[in-house]
């Protein structure tokens, strides 16, 4: 699908071979805060998830795609549409790059461009939203670069250890609708 190809990366569907990659991301303690993970995931649970990954976004209410560098099928990250609501034409959006070495190179920017375009032009969404910790300056910079606007702060929304952290809600309206 040409739609999901950029100059640096392309987005592809999940494959059974992605089990180890997803296992590593889901069990990376440094990512639990942004993914709201509470417990480790077993390979068995991820295998079951991958078996159901064939479900259409209208059925599953989410779409998880693998970010791969152009010229390689090796995964470097994941990008998602979640809480897909076709009636109200909206979805949440999230992204994670597994290794720090892949960040700050334009990879996240291009992957987000591809998924925003897909959401607005193929799924006919009116709006996308992102929930971002107010302390996550890299994600805030990435999303605001696309015109996502801060629409609210959820005070003490997430408990991280013994601390409560604020979460910001950012929204992007499809101006073509």
From TrEMBL:
Protein name, UniProt field: Diamine N-acetyltransferase
Domain of life: Bacteria
Domain N-acetyltransferase: 9-176
Assigned keywords, A-Z: Transferase
Pfam family, one: Acetyltransf_3
One MF annotation (Gene Ontology) recorded for this entry: acyltransferase activity, transferring groups other than amino-acyl groups
UniProt entry tagged with the keyword Transferase: yes
């Amino acid at each position: 699908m040409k739609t999901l190809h950029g100059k640096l990366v392309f987005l592809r569907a999940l494959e059974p071979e992605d089990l180890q990659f997803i296992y590593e991301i889901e069990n990376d303690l440094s990512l639990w805060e942004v993914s709201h993970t509470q417990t480790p995931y077993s390979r068995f649970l991820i295998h079951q998830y991958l078996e159901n990954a064939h479900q259409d976004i209208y059925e599953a209410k989410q779409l998880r795609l693998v970010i791969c560098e152009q010229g390689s099928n090796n995964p470097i990250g994941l990008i998602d549409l979640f809480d897909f609501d076709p009636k109200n034409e909206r979805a949440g959006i999230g992204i994670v790059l597994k290794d720090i070495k892949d960040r700050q190179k334009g990879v996240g920017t291009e992957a987000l461009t591809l998924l925003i375009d897909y959401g607005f032009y193929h799924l006919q969404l009116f709006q996308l939203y992102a929930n971002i910790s107010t302390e996550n300056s890299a994600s805030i910079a990435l999303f605001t670069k696309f015109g996502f606007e801060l629409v609210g702060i959820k005070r003490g929304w997430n408990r991280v250890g013994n601390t409560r952290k604020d979460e910001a809600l950012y929204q992007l309206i499809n101006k073509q609708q």
